[in-house]
Amino acid sequence: MTLPDPAAGPAGAARTFQVDLRGLVGLLSHHLYSSPRVYLRELLQNAVDALTARHGLEPAAPAGAFGIRLYADGSVVRVEDDGVGLTEADVHTFLATIGRSGKRAAGIPADEPVPGWGRIAEQRGDFIGQFGIGLLSCFLVADEIHVLSRSARTPDAPAVEWRGRGDGSYTVRTLPASARPRPGTTVTLTPRADAGEWTRPAQVHALARHSGSLLRHPVTFDDGTGATGGPGAAVNPEPAPWTRTYPTPGARSRALAAYGEEVFGFVPLDTIELGLPAVGLKGIACVLPEAVPAGRRHGHRVHVKGMLLSEQAEEILPEWAFFVRCVVDAESLRPTASRESLYEDDALAAVRDALAERLRAWIARAAASDPDLLGRFLQVHHLAVKSLAVHDDEILRMLLPWLPSETTDGHTTLDEFARTHRTVLVTSSVEEFRQVAAIASAAGLGVVNGGHTYDRELVHRLPEIRPEATVADLDPATLTAHLDPVDRETELAAAAYLALARDALAVFDCDVALRTFQPASAPALLVDSREARHERTRSRLAREQEGGLWGDILGALRQEAPRAQLILNQLNPLVRTAVAIDEPELARTSAEALYGQAALLSRRPLRPAESSLINRSFPGLLAHALRKDS
Ligand SMILES: Nc1ncnc2c1ncn2[C@@H]1O[C@H](COP(=O)(O)OP(=O)(O)OP(=O)(O)O)[C@@H](O)[C@H]1O
């Protein structure tokens, strides 16, 4: 933390920026880090990097030879490592210069050795830190950072003590080697009173477990009383579950599922093992046991070199993978400065693609050899899978035989449906499907309800997979155009009734026609669409507001609104009786009741005028029937 000398130089001379360290720490705490708790993660991460560098220096040292020891007794927090350590020169260069990192030293060419940290070109990918600001996070909980270090690179160098303060001042002094007999670094914080929440022993232990449970170096915690398992209790007693060996594949998958449950709090529907040797990534994807809204992205847990980097990393999987949550540990993914998400670069894009590939392979394997698992999966996640299949040929090809849809043959798979219906018709809304389903199926036509999310798009992709299938959109107007007209005589006989009915239904902009169609049990079909209804409402408002501002605007928007159509079925006995009624009032009421029933059948929300029509017409018919009987 070098504070430049503010002494005035000669006029026009170049000066150096001054840094207000308090302002900088405030900036970090409010805008970079999500909470003061990150200080422990930063200290742990520095210790991990120092151990990595030490192993680089002494490659023959056994894996667990160097470790990290945490101590917190309520009055101090200490993090001690057997890492590469620092010389006095390192302290000035790296500890005391904000933005300077021993792992990415400014001004040092990439292939030059950085003191104590090896050749950057060879090792940069080995370290988690790179920005040279992480240590500042300690000022979120303490006013002073005390560092005692001894370099492993220069064993005969003295121990060095550095004290950095939040006001930007620091001191450095060398101490005899006996002050720190072994190489490594000890960072000690004396927490401020207002930081007790983050520095009490139980919290330090919990924070260390949270971010360090998968670290590959031995990490211990001591609270000075033995309450947390005595001095030297391991923070990471078990290696990551995917690195362990198990007696049987069953035992392995049970252990992975148990870990998934421990981490995410749900029993996974299945656990998918992930492994990408190119970036040293291993982990699991847990399939959610319950459906989630399409498009909702989940945070995944990403560790880098064992260190928990983020619990909310969305970027690691593509958007369509919202049916899983992952926990992975990678060697060389780059964290952002806040350390809470991943740096979006080519490597991350490649990881995302490769992980997506693993998920696809899992689906393919389930489709090929575990129909029971696939059935359970689709029952919960068919929507997610459909969203995936719309853009992904391979998934579409693989899962087409399994994807359920609502059709005129009931709930069936598209594949099955395409086998029985050479031409597959699809509606664009649920409402339209309800209007046409009965008539279309009575006429032997196969219709898929395309109103559910993704279904219409999927049906249209069907011929790519089943070239023998043809797909066409079906709207009610097309269907009614193909209904059989009645003969002239019948039409004439019904003319008076139809005129009355048109008059009664004029308020709904509804025309009335007589046709013959199957099933004979259906008295009437109400052909209408939401767009047409909106258009009619707009026209009506424009008429009402004529001359005013809104009237002009609505008038300008006006289009030719298709009218609704009530098509009465001449084959239906009730309709046959109705058209012969010679009592005008009763004929009117019967037409209203037929309209009301057809509107109810379409299951769309009724407009207030329609509800009052139903409330009027049905009791009217009832009263008439009772009068007749008495
Ligand atoms: N425990 C440690 N052992 C050895 N050197 C350390 C240790 N802690 C910090 N340093 C040195 O101090 C430098 C600054 O540390 P700091 O945590 O501020 O940044 P960084 O880890 O380099 O990058 P980042 O901001 O991404 O964390 C490090 O690059 C390293 O050279």
TrEMBL record:
Supply the InterPro entries for this chain: HATPase_C_sf, Hsp90_fam, Hsp90_N, Ribosomal_Su5_D2-typ_SF
Signal sequence bounds: none
Q: Name one Pfam family in it.
A: HSP90
Q: Where, by residue number, does ATP bind?
A: 42, 46, 81, 101-102, 185
Q: Which SUPFAM superfamilies match?
A: ATPase domain of HSP90 chaperone/DNA topoisomerase II/histidine kinase (SSF55874), Ribosomal protein S5 domain 2-like (SSF54211)
Membrane-crossing residue ranges in chain numbering: none
UniProt entry keywords in alphabetical sequence = ATP-binding, Chaperone, Nucleotide-binding
One Gene Ontology MF term: ATP-dependent protein folding chaperone
Q: Would the keyword Cell membrane be found if you checked this record's keyword annotation? A: no
- Segments carrying the region annotation (Disordered) are 171-190, 224-248
Entry-linked NCBIfam families:
PRK14083.1
The family classification in the record reads:
Belongs to the heat shock protein 90 family.
Could you tell me what this protein is called? Molecular chaperone HtpG
Please report the organism this UniProt entry assigns to the protein: Streptomyces minutiscleroticus
The lineage is: Bacteria, Bacillati, Actinomycetota, Actinomycetes, Kitasatosporales
